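Quick one - first record:
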Amino acid sequence: MKRLNWVGVALVVLVAAGCAGSTPVDEKAAAAAFPDDRFLTAEAAGETEAQAKRAAMAELAAIFEARVYARTVQQATSWTGEGLPEQFDRQVEQSVRIHTDVQLEGARIGRAWPDEAGGGFRALAVLNRRQAASRWQRELAETRMAIDGQEAALDDVAGRLSRLTALNRITALMVREAAIESRLSVLGRPVIPGVDAPSDIIARREQLAQEVSLFIQLEGNPAPPFTRRLNALLSGDGCSLTPYRDEAAGLITGTIRVQPLDLGNPDVHFIRAIADIQLLDVDTDTQIAAFDESVRKGHVDEGEAARRAVEGLAAQVAEKLVRALGTLGVAVE
């Protein structure tokens, strides 16, 4: 019995020694499990296994987005040629950010293991190239179909502002198309470029943009400060505004009002600012958009509460107008 016990102890020691000397993950085996031709991968470290996994997923997304962004900007800016406004370049860049800052659906952790050399843990995030490409190929087909449909309808669009809005949306869709093509290229699944002529669309858009300006005509007691703030916000988004109504291709009209609110707090004044807005094409008297917005703000000073409410309302209205105009700085729905 004693001899058998010693044999058992010796076996345990040998097994333990063997385990201590082996690495939990063999790098060659990991490479074989996730070959580069089938998977996009990224590795990262962390103090805990959970931190390592989060870091690996973030690294995979960062690598992917950086490559897609670089390719998309290169393609989109090649359309613009020389001498186009800096604002257009900024809008293209912002739109590319929107379309490349995507969650990598299907990405997962392939392996996680203790980091014997540096302590902590390491993890490998992986994305199946074929599965991701399948999703984006469908999205590319849908985007190209939308471009074809909107281009076909363009000749029937009357009014300068309406035509500019249509060209804005087509251009934004073309940037989306370029972003999807870049995603597929990064995955090693290049596609046949579309047959459209983006440079022609953009040239027409830029020429018309020089002829289109907006005039703001609002009623209500807080209309002057609201108008000043709205003017600044829309100008920052690349819209051209004019102080003369007879020069405008688009009219922003409606009413702005504020109302005090009793919310049961005697130490704070609450103010609600309300806007009823319409965007009209002056050439055709066509309504492009109509919406209501409201913002509530509180402050110990009633005037400050009103100012904050009006400025917050202007920001919401500007965002709605920019979206209605189809500018590149917003995602196309």
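second record:
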Amino acid sequence: MQLSTIQQKIFDDNRLKTIIGLGTGKGKTLTSLLLAQGKILIVVDKQQKVDKTFENTLITFNLDKDITVLTIDQFRKTWQTLPYFETLIIDECHKQLGGAVVYFRFKTYFKPSSICKAFFSYVQKHNPERVYPLTATIEASPMTIYNACKIIGVHFNLNDWIKAFYFLLNERYRIKKDEKTTDRLIAVVSKHGYYEKHDDAPEQIYQQIYVDNTPEQHKRIEEIKIEYPDMQQVGKIYQIENGVLKGNQFQESETFTCEKYTHIQQIAKEHPRLIVYATYTEQIDRLYDLLATSYSVYKLTGKTPKKVREQLLASLHNLNNYVLIVNTAINSGWELKHCPTMCFFSVPYTTRPHHRIQAEGRIQRTGNLKVNTYIDIITRGGVNEALYNAQKNGKSFSEKLFFNQSKPIDMFQQTLEDFKRRGISEIQIGNNKYKI
């Protein structure tokens, strides 16, 4: 088999415990399997388990390895009963080795996630000979790298680490986002593991198309703010901004006129090979019905069986004209490396910025680096734009923060509407009179 330069170096170094922080499509799965020895425990997210990513890699490269693959939830529930494994591989460790830095009563605390605690306990109990945390997005959280280092036996002073990568604002710790801090984090990974992105890739094309809510969307959003006076309204507003509102057992789903659907038709016309990311089932179905009249359209969702997915992706590799609509939750474990265009009809509704990086990596792969076009259709001034800005800047999106920021404006608007309902057309503040 032909390994890339970085893969060959990792294999030749043959470290027993190391972080493998290669970019999406750089071959982390194969590299970790080549290093692994004896009985191998691999912990992955649910989608990787369903797709049998590691098992299929063994078959593809004709490797004879004794592997046991568990989902994150399976490991969290059963780690106490698991036997000794010579090798532990933690896939997508940014999802598994996280935690929170908390400031409470003038003291700083670090609270690892439950799955992170399980890994610490398992490693302390069994001490595997080889441990390989894998991630394509080490920038997702400094605490992920702190924990990954701890898992492989490298211990940093916690207070010094927090001072280096966090700052305290309004009694809350926030991650430093400047370039110098990112470089410091990369240096840590490079010293105790391997870091390499697609630095040799050509400059990518990023386009933004801004749209406004239609009167119908605006009217329904105002109703939602009254129906749901709490943070539930944030997610529902985001749905409406994308032209749908999910129903339940008591209410039918709703659709709204939406400028985004006009733009997606033009994008599909201009880009013959196109991946469209959308968030909700109703959204995906509506997009499919809209585009299927003029284009060869396919869907990839959590309901797509594994065999069907494999057949679909294999067939698309050989097509020159298609639109593939993908649920934003499916941002890893597959690729269409010849596709040159990706459109985010809606950005992933998530607090984790690294999901966007993972999604973009579906069409930027080692061995076929190229100029890709990434198009975002963004609803101006709402949840959609706030999500986009957060993910673009590598920050987490906070529903609570968005809700609290928009709340005073909503109260003012409601007050004006109340005045109008009561027939008040003019108010006086001090010596000045204002028309409503």
